[in-house]
Design a protein that fits this description.
Elements (H helix, E strand, L loop, with lengths): L3 H12 L4 H6 L5 H17 L3 E7 L5 H14 L3 E6 L9 H10 L1 E2 L9 H4 L7 H12 L5 H11 L3 H11 L6 H12 L11 H4 L1 H13 L5 E6 L9 H15 L8 E8 L2 H7 L3 H8 L5 H11 L9 H19 L7 H7 L7 H18 L1 E2 L2 E3 L5 E3 L12
Parallel strand pairs: 1-5, 2-4, 4-5
Antiparallel strand pairs: 2-3, 6-7, 7-8
Helix pairs in contact: 1-17, 1-19, 3-4, 7-8, 7-12, 8-9, 8-10, 13-16, 17-19
Length: about 400
């Protein structure tokens, strides 16, 4: 009998495509950094203390897998999770685009699909949650736009207006003038902004609003996971420095939204190739000599970011044992292979964790299909023995 969940795990590992399910079952590796990450989540859950962290690692060494592990851990702690990759379409120097992508990839605990609007639709204009959010939006943000917008969203009965205001909350920002017209139609009162909202200057209001909302909806915090941070290196000099300033909003506790933890993952070559190679410290002093401190702190954090070291032999053996178990469940067989044989089969896969995993799965595939792989042979009882000679598997055998 095939175990379809186990097969999903094996196919995800075989393809090398990151998977939340894989992160759920392979979470014991790197106990030191996982202990620190778990502690950061506990600070958010128990003490509402926000913070951020950067990790670095070589390609294929498990950065994305670690993010998926944190994803699952956060959901177990009843935390909202947003998972996104920085890219040309989601550049860190344009925070309003990052916000839009963040909301598109926000998962509530217990949900397999992203999205929060189904929860917002449950909020009534006279509910305690509305009574908390409206004064917050009016008094605690840089602008008061979200007060007028959210109050209009809660009170309109026009489906087109509802859609327009909902799209704004998801990052497709409505023009200030359009919001004024909607508010006047609903309440018969003019809008008097304390400052006209600009998505390039005030997008931080939206992150602050959502973090406050999640907390008062009963969730234990908001975890934001950002992968492929090294793509900031492709930005122009000034855009890259602005990206560092935006990162400070998620990394420095005094600037973070409430009850949030943000984790950035980037390539370990970023410091040498970008920060040193493109002289970012010097550029920062030249372009932003007065307000350089948050960005300088981010540069320091990037330089000192903990790097994912290759797994120890014991950690690799533990992961391979799980892979062996999942392979057996996935295809309905019992691969009685010694840990030594499985470990030896991964040596040709190089030093990267990803290639070691693929080599182990290929080894088990061959044993399952042909009863032999290299010097290892599985007899009719499913037991391991050694072949007289190492007969290579021919391409036409596949």
């Amino acid at each position: 009998m095939y175990d379809m969940e186990a097969r999903h795990i094996i196919e995800a590992l075989r393809s090398g495509v990151p998977s939340r399910a894989v992160g759920q079952y392979f979470s014991e590796a790197r106990p030191k950094i996982m202990k620190e990450l778990s502690g950061r989540l506990d600070l958010v859950c128990d003490k509402n203390k926000s913070s951020g962290m950067i990790i670095s690692g070589k390609y294929g060494e498990g950065k994305t897998h670690l993010l998926n592990t944190v994803f699952n851990l956060a959901h177990l702690n009843n935390m909202v999770v947003s998972y996104l990759s920085l890219s040309k379409e989601t550049p860190m120097d344009k925070l309003y685009l990052v916000y839009q992508k963040t909301l598109q990839n926000t998962y509530l605990p217990g949900r397999q699909q992203p999205g929060i609007m189904q929860e917002l639709e449950k909020i009534s204009a006279n509910s305690p949650l509305a009574g908390e959010m409206l004064p917050f939006a009016l008094k605690s943000l840089e602008t008061d736009k979200l007060y007028y917008l959210f109050r209009s969203y809660l009170n309109t009965e026009d489906s087109d207006e509802k859609f327009l205001l909902q799209a704004d909350l998801e990052g497709d920002f409505v023009a200030n003038g359009s919001l004024k017209k909607i508010y006047r139609r609903i309440f018969g009162q003019p809008v008097k902004y304390n400052e006209n909202f600009s998505k390039t200057r005030h997008c931080g209001d939206y992150f602050a609003f959502m973090s406050h909302l999640f907390t008062h909806m009963g969730y234990h915090g908001w975890v934001i996971l950002m992968d492929e941070t090294e793509l900031m290196g492709r930005l122009s000099k000034k855009a890259r420095l602005n990206a560092y300033r935006n990162m400070a909003r998620f990394l420095l506790p005094e600037l973070c939204p409430e009850s949030t933890f943000t984790l950035f993952a980037l390539s370990s070559s970023y410091v040498e190739d970008v920060i040193e190679g493109k002289h970012d410290y010097e550029n920062l002093e030249q372009i932003y000599p007065i307000s350089l401190q948050p960005a300088r702190t981010v540069l320091d954090m990037l330089v000192k970011a903990p790097q994912l070291v290759p797994l120890t032999r014991e950690e690799v053996s533990s992961a391979l044992a799980k892979i062996q178990d999942f392979h057996g469940r996935a295809y309905g067989w019992t691969p009685n292979v010694s840990a030594e044989s499985l470990t030896e089969a991964t040596q040709s896969g190089g030093y990267l964790l990803r290639t070691k995993i693929r080599a182990a799965i290929e080894f088990l595939d061959q044993l399952y299909q042909y009863g032999k792989a290299g010097k290892t042979v599985i007899n009719e009882l499913g037991e391991e023995s050694l072949a007289q000679e190492d007969v290579p598997l021919l391409e036409e055998d596949w």
